[in-house]
Structure formats: structure tokens, C-alpha cells
Amino acid sequence: MIERLLISLRALAVDAADERLRADAADAVRLTLDCPQHDLTPAQRARLRSLGDLLDDDAGSAAAVADAARDTCVALGIV
């Protein structure tokens, strides 16, 4: 599951305007947050929730989503 999230985040960082990528990333974020097996810090969870909100509400511009995806990668230590 975390692998799917990582792939989605990297794809978003490159092309955050693609609706299919955004939908897939939103799903991957929610699945990751809902899975108790992932040992995420509170800061990592907050970062993922913030990105998920941008994607779910479709409120984020492509630039904002790409920035949030990159910031989430940094928070998860996958730079």
C-alpha cells in the first residue's frame, strides 16, 4: 500500500493537473491513513491529511498539489 502511495506522490509532483493521477493519489492517501500497520508520525499523518484534503475537495491548483506532494515526500523521507 505504501508503495502505491509513493508512486502516486512522485507522479503528482510531475503532473498534478492529471485528474486520474489526482484521484488515484487521493485514494492511496486515504488507504494509507486508514491502515494501522503504517507507523506514521503525527507530522506525517498531518501532511498526508492536508494533501488528501486538497485532492478530495479538488480545491488545490495543480501547482499547490504538486508542492504538497513534494512536501509529503520530504515528510515521509522519500526525497
How would you portray this structure in words?
The protein has four helices and no strands. The protein has 79 residues and is mostly helical. It has one domain. Helix 1 packs antiparallel against helix 2 and helix 2 runs antiparallel to helix 3 (42-56). It is globular, with a radius of gyration of 11 Å.
The Rg value, from CA coordinates, equals 11 Å
Structural class: mainly alpha
- Most strands sheet: none
Number of DSSP E strands: 0
Summarize this structure briefly.
Helix content is 75%, strand content 0%.
List the helices and strands and how they pair.
Blueprint: H1 2-14, H2 19-34, H3 42-56, H4 62-76
Features:
79 residues, 4 helices
